[in-house]
Amino acid sequence: MANVTVYNMEGKEVGTIELNDAVFGVEINEHLVHMAVVNQLANNRQGTQKAKTRSEVSGGGRKPWRQKGTGHARQGSTRAPQWTGGGMVFAPVPRDYSFKMNKKEKRAALKSALTSRVQANKLIVLDQLTMDAPKTKAMQNVLNSLNVNKALVVTKENDANVVLSARNIPDVKTALVNTINVYDVMKYNTVVLTKDAVAAIEEVYA
């Protein structure tokens, strides 16, 4: 099992914690991690893009000139794709981009993502993270003391003061144990977990 240093909010070492290999020490499956990221991005797509084909563009009901004798190429409509104002060939239509991943695949992908952060020394454990009031400066001081900037901060309980304190800091996102996902874990350089959050994650995913 991997031993990780536990820090306090001032950035000082206050102990160590042993991470469960069933969650933070699995064999990394890059294919599942990639698939989970693509899955989340695809499921977030609106799929509302739309353009009109020649049958949907208004006008063009009359043949612009007679078939023969004008010297021009034959034309049947001013709304054919080669005309300005005409319809689009193979126009995009609203569609659903989402696809399904199995639960076991999602769990394995998240474990792989967390393990990759542990192996890269990009996972930091805090003994606790509390704020007396919503103060962006206080949260920034915590991150500065830990020497991190682009971070995903994961807590067990929904602390409004912590969420509001981090909300205005660029490249910092807060999440609960039950809302973490592979995309966010891989997007942010560092994952900051509280000890309670580590225990909760191990309880759910071990």
Automatic annotation (TrEMBL):
InterPro entries: Ribosomal_uL4 (IPR002136), Ribosomal_uL4-like (IPR013005), Ribosomal_uL4_dom_sf (IPR023574). Gene3D superfamilies: 3.40.1370.10. One of its GO terms (biological process) is translation. Residues 44-85 are annotated as: Disordered. It holds the Pfam family Ribosomal_L4. GO terms for cellular component: ribonucleoprotein complex; ribosome. It comes from the Bacteria. Keywords: Ribonucleoprotein, Ribosomal protein, RNA-binding, rRNA-binding. GO terms for molecular function: rRNA binding; structural constituent of ribosome. Part of the 50S ribosomal subunit. HAMAP family: Ribosomal_uL4_B (MF_01328_B). Belongs to the universal ribosomal protein uL4 family. One of the primary rRNA binding proteins, this protein initially binds near the 5'-end of the 23S rRNA. It is important during the early stages of 50S assembly. It makes multiple contacts with different domains of the 23S rRNA in the assembled 50S subunit and ribosome. This is Large ribosomal subunit protein uL4. It comes from Fusicatenibacter faecihominis. The gene is rplD.
